[in-house]
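Dear colleague,

As promised, here are the two records you asked about, laid out in our usual form so they can be pasted straight into your sheet.

NAME FIELD: protein one
SEQUENCE, THEN STRUCTURE:
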Amino acid sequence: MTAALAVSSKAGGFAVLVALVNGPFQPMADLLVPVLSAIAMATILFGNIAALTMRNVKRLMGLSGVSHAGYLLIGVVALFSIPEARNAIVFYLVTYLLAAFSVFGVMAHVSEGGRDDMQPMDAYQNLSRENPFLGGVLALGLASLAGIPPLAGFVGKFLLFYAAFKAQLYGLLGVAVIGVVLSIYYYFGWIREATFRFWKLPRLEEEPSPQPRVLPEIGLVGKITLGGLALLILLLGLYPGPLSSLSQY
C-alpha cells in the first residue's frame, strides 16, 4: 500500500503537470521555469541531505522519494522547450515504480520476520546470507534508485539529465548530479548492511548474541512478483526499448 501510494501520487501529480505545461502554462514559461527550477533544486538537495544520516529505512525511502520528485521536476522544466521530455518523465516513473515496489516488497517480508516493525537499518544485517533472494532483490532495487548502470534507474536518470542538457538547464543538471552522488552514499549504506558481513571481536561477559532471525517463507506469488520486478529492472537497463525514444532528437 505504501509503495502504491508513493508511486501513484507522483504519477498522478506529474501527469497533471505535464498536461498544464503543454497547455495553459506554456505562455508563462519565463515565469515558471525559474520558479520550478528553484523548487526542483531545493527538493533534490533537501531529500538527499536529510536521508544521509537516516537509519530508519521507512523514513529513508520517504526522503528519497522527495528527491525523486525533484528529478522528475527537471523533466517538467525541460518540457517547456523540449516536448519530447515527456518520454523521459514517463520512463523515469516506470523505473521508479519497479524499484520502489521491489524494495517495499523486501521490507514487507523483513517486517514479518519478527524484527522491529519500525524498520531500523540494523534489521537488514546479513540479509543476503540469510535469504539470498531477498538480499539480491533489495540490492537491485536500491542500486536502480541510485542510478547505477546497467540498471533501469540509470537509463531513467540519463534521459532526464540529457533533456536538461538539451534545454540548457546547466544549473539544474549540476544540482541533480550532486544529488545522485549523495544518494549513492545512503543507498549503498543500506546495501552494505544487507550484503556485507563485518566481523567484530568477541566481547567477554557481555550480553549473549541475539537469536538468528527466522524470515517467513516466500510464497510462489511473492517469488514471481519480486523476481519479475528485479528482472524488469535489469532488462530495462540493458534494453530500454521504445520508452527511451527521447534519444531521437
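NAME FIELD: protein two
SEQUENCE, THEN STRUCTURE:
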Amino acid sequence: MLKHISKGLLACVAAAGLAAVTTAPADAQTTKLRIQTHYAPETPSGQLLTEYVDNIQTMSNGEIEVEMFYSSSVVKSVETFDAAATGVLDCDATGGGYQTGKNPAFQFVGDIMGGYATPVQQLSWLYYGGGMDAAQELYNKYDMQLVGWIVYGQESLSSTKPIAGLEDLKDWKFRSPPGMETKIFEKLGAKPIVMDFTEIFTALESGIIDGADASGIANNVGLGLYDIAKYANYPGFHSMPSDHIACNKAVWDAMPEHHKRIMTVAIGDTALKSALTFEKKNAEAVAALKEQGVTVSAWSEDDLQAFRTAAQETWPEFATTPEAKALVESHTNYLRQLGLVQ
C-alpha cells in the first residue's frame, strides 16, 4: 500500500511530525524567576550557577526564564532569603547559614562546622540521612522551598598574618559569617567580625580585619583576596557550607511539575560538578599561589582535632530552638553511622 502513497503526502506527514516535536504547545506555562547570588560571575561558584541557569532554561525549552543577579547586586547577601520570601526576588542562591538570626536551626542546614569531611558525606545526609525532610520543614516555616544544595568542599582562610596553626588564631581579627562560627573561633582566641560577603576585600585592604573566612581557596583567588592576604591554609578544615537554591514557596507551588523536576535534577548535577570542579581548581590555585609567594599552611592533626572538639561542643550550645535541636540530633546520629564522631 505504501508504494501508492504520493511523495507529496509523505512529505506533509513528515513535516507535521517534525512540527509536533519541535514546536512547544501554545498553552505552555512560563516560569519567570529572579535569582540572586553573593558570588561574582568570575568565581568558580558563580560560573557553576551560570551553567545551572543555562541548564534549566535549555531543558525547559525556554519555559523557565531566569534573570540572574550576581555579587548581591539587589540586596545584601544576608537579605537575599527575605527578599525572595517577600517577592522582591523569587529565589535565593546564597546559603542557609546567613539566616541564623531567624532561627539557629539554619546553622545546621547552612554549615554544621567540624563535622563532615567531604561534600559527598554532607550531601548524603541531606538526601539519604533524613536531612531534606527536616530542612524543608524549616524552610517552609519561613515561606521558602529548599530546591537543593551545592557543597563545594572545605573552605580556606585568607590572612595578612601567618595562619599556620591554632596559636596564630590568638587576637586574629577576621571576617566571619553570622552564626555559630563566631562562638567557636572566640573559644580558640580569635576575634571574629561579622560583615557582608561583598565587604571583605575592602576590609582587608583597609586593615579593618587581619583575614577572612570567605570561601574555598579557588573562589578566594577569584575574589582577589590573595592580592592583599599573603597567607592561607590548605586543605581547609573549619567550614564546609551548603550553598542552596531556595525559592519563594508560593512561586514554587505555582510552577508546573516538570519545571520543579528540572530545577531539582539540575541542582544535583551542579552539586556533583561543584565538588569535582573544586577538587581540581583548589589544587591548581594552591600551586599558583605558592609560585606567587603566598604561604599556604596545612594544620597539624592535633590542631585540627582541637578545632573539631571546640566545634562539636558548641553545637548543643547553639541549638536553642526545637528545630535546631532536632537537626543537631539528626546530624549527630548520621555522623556516628559514618564513623566521624563517637
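A couple of things worth noting about protein two: The chain has two domains: 31-153+241-280, 157-238+294-338. The two ends are 76 Å apart (CA to CA).

Best,
R.
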